[in-house]
Amino acid sequence: MNPFSSATLAHIAKAHGTPLWAYDAATIQRQIAALRQFDVVRFAQKANSNTHILRLMRAQGVLVDAVSLGEVERALAAGYQPGLHQGHYEIVFTADLLDRATLARVVELGIPVNCGSADMLDQLGAAHPGHPVWLRINPGFGHGHSNKTNTGGEHSKHGIWHAELPQALAKVRANGLQLLGLHMHIGSGVDYAHLQEVCGAMEALVATVKAQGMDLSAISAGGGLSIPYQAGEPQIDTVHYFSCWDAARQRIAASLGHPVTLELEPGRYLVAESGVLVSEVRASKDVGSNHFVLVDAGFSDLMRPSMYGAFHGISVITAAGEASTAPVKDTVVAGPLCESGDVFTQGEGGVVQTRALPAAQVGDLLVFHDAGAYGASMSSNYNTRPLIAEVLVEDSQVRVIRRKQTVAELLALEAL
Ligand code: LLP
């Protein structure tokens, strides 16, 4: 979806230039509200780690996950505290390895580590006996909108293999670590056809913890909740999703004999629909039978179509600031990069596709929908293109929350 009117986006583009990211605060708040039943909603900030978005999350009671030293520092910069908030750690660090600098920092701050490899348990134990940990388990199956976002099963590098849980628990004990909970994230853009199987896997894993004479206080369902990118794709039924997990949590609590916290770790669900990428058409041409429209944003900005063949809805706004009513034309939408794969309309495997769009003219705006998750956060400087600006719209106020990078800033890194 696109939460903005054509007039609003035309106004923002005029004031701040293109290409640019625009986010709608009310959409984020609406998505948070839909998950209120969970004890803890922990934002997977990799989806959108702008500190102003993180501040908005924190003000709504959303806790945060970090997957790098940089994301830990972002969480702190946004006001998240390293310690407990109403009984829950505000920041959790999730990874499959600990580089030395990050290990030192999480130990210094006492930030719990969600461990996806057993070696992490030895390294944490050596650095800081008693450190709080989660165990991220690969249950042996997964799902995702693309093979690249399926994080369960033998092909995935993520998590401790389910059959290795007893050995991991032995390491937790041997290293004197504090086990907080078990975590499972089976993929991103999951259809959850096998939700019962996922919850059942968690119950079986907790039974293993109990059988080893150990205990835990929390379980995490991970993230993965999808949003409808294309017309006809369903909205996830969060009430049903919660009730399956809540039932599993209640059985787990009954078996352990005490309450157990239920965490969720969404990224996309909270931010995808809030954001758009606004670009300007700078050229158009016919290449054989294909009609190309070339815009000033590339996969260095929005990588998802090139990386996964991901679909983003596109709308066309005229230079006058109105939704285009031009006759529809089959169009290939491409960017400025020196790569044939710099195409926004493509399927998985890089097959160029056409999209039926109102015929776009140079000077029109092309708006890519549902780009608030894994948009700006996956951008790069390829072709020496500076990172573009981000604006947040809140109560009709437009606020720049990241200015555009400059070429001088890129070159400064090499001025040695
Ligand atoms: N928790 C863990 C441990 C994760 O690895 C991820 C995503 C999430 C939570 C949040 O997943 P979400 O709720 O956003 O689906 N770049 C890809 C998505 C990769 C996700 C990586 N991990 C994309 O653009 O679709």
UniProtKB/TrEMBL annotation:
Protein name: Diaminopimelate decarboxylase
Binding site for pyridoxal 5'-phosphate: 224, 265-268, 374
Known partners and oligomeric status: Homodimer.
Function: Specifically catalyzes the decarboxylation of meso-diaminopimelate (meso-DAP) to L-lysine.
PROSITE patterns reported for this sequence: ODR_DC_2_1 (PS00878), ODR_DC_2_2 (PS00879)
Domain of life: Bacteria
CDD domains named among the record's database cross-references: PLPDE_III_DapDC
Domain Orn/DAP/Arg decarboxylase 2 N-terminal: 30-272
GO biological process: lysine biosynthetic process via diaminopimelate
Binding of substrate, residues: 268, 304, 308, 339, 374
Keywords, ordered alphabetically: Amino-acid biosynthesis, Decarboxylase, Lyase, Lysine biosynthesis, Pyridoxal phosphate
Pathway assigned to this chain's UniProt record: Amino-acid biosynthesis; L-lysine biosynthesis via DAP pathway; L-lysine from DL-2,6-diaminopimelate: step 1/1
Cofactor: pyridoxal 5'-phosphate
Family of this protein: Belongs to the Orn/Lys/Arg decarboxylase class-II family. LysA subfamily.
UniProt keyword Lyase, yes or no: yes
Matching InterPro entries: Ala_racemase/Decarboxylase_C, DAP_deCOOHase_LysA, De-COase2_CS, De-COase2_N, De-COase2_pyr-phos_BS, Orn/DAP/Arg_de-COase, PLP-binding_barrel
GO molecular function, one term: diaminopimelate decarboxylase activity
Modified residue annotations for N6-(pyridoxal phosphate)lysine: 46
Active site as annotated: 338 (proton donor)
UniProt EC number: 4.1.1.20
Chemical reaction(s) catalysed: meso-2,6-diaminopimelate + H(+) = L-lysine + CO2
Species for this entry: Rhodoferax aquaticus
